[in-house]
Amino acid sequence: MKVTCDLSISADGYSAGLNQTEERPFGDDGGDGWGDKLHAWMEDPEEARLQLEWLAESKAFIMGRNMFGPVRGEWDRQWKGWWGDNPPYHGPVFVLTHYPREPQPMEGGTTFHFVTDGIKAAFERAREAAGDGNISIHGGATTINQYLAAGLIDEVRLRVMPFTLGAGTRLFDGVPGLNLEQVESRAAGPITHLTYRVLH
């Protein structure tokens, strides 16, 4: 089993801008607020195929509530995520939240489970669900930072986009110093792929 994280960031390390709203889930992201610049790689069929292959390597996923959706506080509506009726995960997704909610099954084998007792509880549930498969700490940066700080991530996969944001939600904020071993560095047009093994 391997625990990975996978994130698109600006050249100065931000995965989203300030002022995130339902209408602009990535906030002031240098583009349309929906991550069009941060996730421009999705327009490249080869890059999109590689991403789906990486997703398929993982058998369980963990994400923060902000990544799951814009609802804050109590669940006052039955939000089902940003991805439509058939999300790309095709497995169990454990969503960190302070507010309990019943599991949300979706088409294609994805079920969102809502975990209220912290990152380690979500990790244990994901490990049990994944069996011998990988776990993806899927974002956003705040959630990834918590798992990095707890020493629970084995591999960091980054897509670095060629612009800066200057402010927002930033990878590695609040994370103690890490020793990383470079596994891959690859340029794909304007995108730089960086993969690091975390040396525990």
Description:
The chain is α/β, with parallel strands linked by helices. It is built from four helices and eleven strands, in the order ββαβαβββαβαββββ. The strands form two sheets. A nine-stranded mixed sheet has the order 5-6-4-3-7-1-8-11-10, sandwiched between helices. The radius of gyration is 16 Å and the shape is globular. The chain starts with a strand and ends with a strand. The mean pLDDT is 93. InterPro entries: DHFR-like_dom_sf (IPR024072), RibDG_C (IPR002734), Riboflavin_Biosynth_HTPR (IPR050765). Residues 2-192 form the Bacterial bifunctional deaminase-reductase C-terminal domain. One of its GO terms (molecular function) is 5-amino-6-(5-phosphoribosylamino)uracil reductase activity.
Brief summary:
The protein has 200 residues and is an alpha/beta fold.
The largest sheet has its strands arranged as: 5-6-4-3-7-1-8-11-10
Can you tell me the overall shape? globular
Oligomeric composition of the shown chains: single chain
- Sheet bearing the most strands, described? 9 strands, mixed
Q: What string, H for helix and E for strand, traces the elements in order?
A: EEHEHEEEHEHEEEE
Span from first to last CA? 15 Å
Structural class per helix/strand content? alpha/beta
GO biological process, one term: riboflavin biosynthetic process
InterPro entries: DHFR-like_dom_sf (IPR024072), RibDG_C (IPR002734), Riboflavin_Biosynth_HTPR (IPR050765)
Protein name: Dihydrofolate reductase family protein
Pfam family, one: RibD_C
